[in-house]
Amino acid sequence: MSLVDPSLLCNWIIFRDGRLQIQSGKVDIGQRISTALVQIVHEELTIPYSQIDVAPVRTGQSPDEGITSGSNSIEQSGHAIRCAAATLRCALIAVAARQTGTEPQDWHVEHGSLCLPATNHRIPIADLAAYLDPSTVVDPNVVFRVVDSENGPGPGMRGMAELVNGSFTFVHDLEMPGMQHARAIRPPNVNARLRSDETALEKWLEKDQRLIRDGSFLAITGPKEWPVVRAAGRLAAACNWDMCDGLPEIDVFSKLTAETAIRMPVVDSTPSNGSLPEPLLNPTAMARYERPYQLHGALGPSAALAEWNGVVLKIFCHSQGIYPLRDSIADSLGLDPSHVVITHVFGAGCYGHNGADDAAFEAALIAMQTPGVPILLKWTREDEHRWEPFAPAMAVELAAQIKVGKIGAYSAEVFSDTHRGRPRPGPDRAGPGKLLANRFRADPVGPPTAQPNLARHGGMHRNLDPIYDIPRKQFVKNLVTGLPHRTSAMRCLGAALNIFGLESFMDELALQSGIEPTAFRRAHLSDSRALAVLDELDRQVSRLPALTAQCGRGQAYAQYKNQMTRVGVSVDLAVDDHGRVRLLHAVIVADAGRVVDFEGLKAQLEGGFVQAASWALYEQVHWDRDGIVSKDWDSYPVIRFDNIPKIDVTVMNRGHEKSVGAGEASPGPTIAAIANAIFDATGLRMRRMPFTPDMILTRAIED
Amino acid sequence: MGACGAVNLTIRVNGQTHQITSDPDTPLIYVLRDELQLKGTKLGCGLEQCGACAVLVGGKTVLSCVSAVETFEGQDITTIEGIEATEVGRRVQDAFVKATAAQCGYCTAGLVVAATALLTETPNPDREATLAALAPHLCRCGSHPRVLRAVTRAASG
Ligand code: FES
Ligand code: FES
Q: A481 and A403 in contact (C-beta within 8 Å)?
């Protein structure tokens, strides 16, 4: 947890020039964490939003909160900041009480001041801060203020005003005196090596440009951006690559089997070393669900700025884990970690581990060869599509025994490559080994061999265990390595496929048993909050227009990691004769406990729906022997405005329950609801994503 | 001075006239960002596939990432930085803020520009017309529903 270390109050909250500054180690990746943190501090201290800042996240200054991922920011950093703000309130009230000879319990906070009712004592919190004992420690058991966050306008999304007038700074927009632009020249595929020598390539450079090379890592720098882009294009065409073995042209789904896998039973959502369970005897139903390699596909390609002054390497990037990245880069370059300073700057939304860390390291590699010259490296669209770490292809095999309309026994076995491609220090130089450019350097490192993730609900086994009441359940995970592509964490990890599988399977089992799917789900749920979500979903859906010909409705329910946000999703869609799916209407109902930032939460749920709809209907990485074929938005289509349904979101506020993250809660049930709706419309059961017209027509022929 | 030698190229951006020193083959976006320091326009693909780089040219949405600056000679260009010059532009900006029509915001500049062009031409577009006008624009964060709400708000506001 974030609070353990450091726990000094001044590590989380400080005052500067009469303004409060929040220091968090979590970075804003479009999930509005900084907005939520401001809201939390405001709730505990009543200081106006306009007087609260969020400090830039920088190694050596910010608390080390690991990686911003897994929807944990609110639970971890949010909780830490709430404890810190509440501790501050109590400590300052104690100071005020002491100074005035009054009792602490008589004081309260209002509009950023401490007030003593029925007196004229009003002390601005910022004024009292100077009297605070700097050794004050955050009290993890401090009592929070009770506030109704639905009241009054929230702080408004930070940066929104700047985004609409073009003054918001992304890492791509950084500018420094003497800065040069850089582009990398990529090999055709990950196994190719550069044959050309520098002199043959240098003739393609333009005025004031430079070639940077380390083995097969090749880049170009220059003072103006377009000439660098132009020359990079010519260089790419001129390079002579040894293709070596190219990429294996395999059907990845045929490789997702137990044959070569590291197999482990999963007990209580945690992999164990125990013996593997026997397959379920005479199951009533069995099905296998699959997901191809997919992209994070950030709208803005990754970028980073780096400067080496001979002693200190400064990096500005949009990594989600600046401390692990710092250590991995320091190790790669033989520097002391304290000589590498990484500052987080906004990038485009990333949805997991995309090219951000690799771009940061590549900018650093280049900058090390240009001392004193800041280097702004930008990946191109093609770089991002072909070289980001993909979300792994996955499969899950489900089986169930049904007795009198209820599931008596259930088994799930999941197959996947690793979801842990993030650079972080570990055995066998795992940190450097996971940075892309290290594979191409003259002295190459990596890739490291993937090890099974043993964490509860970690990686591929996230949400493998159904949230339903089932007497007998068994689970197995299979880590399949040696597959063609580098993979890493993407929004939801295994939960996207596992929930798609489970919630499709629930519909299949219900229909096979002659029971209405929602009734079948309810029959297996005793959690009253889950049932309340389903009730609300019913209520909302009953108000939708009736379905017409060729239309279908599908629903799904899930609780992320079986312990975070509960979400019910309903989708109405139409499937035309060409197998094209048009989304018509979606209803999302969620329970995320105590809600901090209503708008932010709704945005996350809607955003999760849209991204998952894109995965479900469009997205799949293609490759051939020469390299990745999905290199832009034409060869890797994604959802666009013309297929966005009307979306209604209802959030059930549970003021007394713990706040839980919702950033990854809606995608899983969304995919399943779409598959279930396609079945409702066509009678075709789609078990492999994406549900493209081709796949739907193929399925129709198979049936 | 560009590699192709001295060319006198003039473009008008946000009401101001600029003598351009970049090479005439430079795609407009690099001139805006690199030479004129107008960094609000974003590059998402450089392939006219994502809409991030949209600007207004003569009031219409134009993608700035491929076409060379020389093709814009003498034309009136409005970037996101100049969008507030018109009443419609201000309404769109305001509606985007009120609807929180962004998550990471990388798509926002292009969408504000497109929405401004749409509402200038069609003050009250129906849903289909709005979807069609915005279809060239990608948003990977799934802010679409909020963007649509913002457009509705700006149209009625
Ligand atoms: S950057 Fe111009 S359309 Fe993508
Ligand atoms: S808000 Fe991130 S791409 Fe649209």
A: no
